[in-house]
Specification:
By secondary structure, the chain is an all-alpha fold. The protein has one domain (11-144). Helix content is 72%, strand content 0%. The chain has 5 helices and no strands. It has helices at residues 11-34, 41-48, 54-80, 89-107, 118-144. Helix 1 runs antiparallel to helix 5 and helix 2 (41-48) crosses helix 5 (118-144). The chain is elongated and about 55 Å long.
Amino acid sequence: MATHSATPSRLLPLLSGVTAGIFVTLALQVLLNSRGMQIGTVWQNIAGGEALNLRAALVWWVIAGSAVVAGAAVAGVLGRMPAPWWRYRTIRWILGAAALFALAHVAHGANAPDGIKMTAQLGSAAMSMVLGALMAAFGGVFSLRR
């Protein structure tokens, strides 16, 4: 017979927080790119020997801060809910559908950045995803501390 531990696992809320942080990172990349703030500008400035642009650095800070907040919020809410989440199945489906529609709406504005090489854009997008995942994990861990 399976025994259940008295302390609930914190892995699922933490992984959900990291996933939310990655989704926020993806959405911010598209939104900031449509407003002329590309994440690849920092890499292109460093590779070209130019001075760093404050606006380009601000993009990375916005992505990191938003991922921390999203990861902490999702992990904090899920960590404080009672363990059998079967009762919340309907609300989870509604929130999941709303998140999916929001990401699809944001994705309609995605286009290639102007004036940035594709390799710089690809590398910076990958690094921003790693940054978003790490910062969401930090936010999730700190929100799950009791």
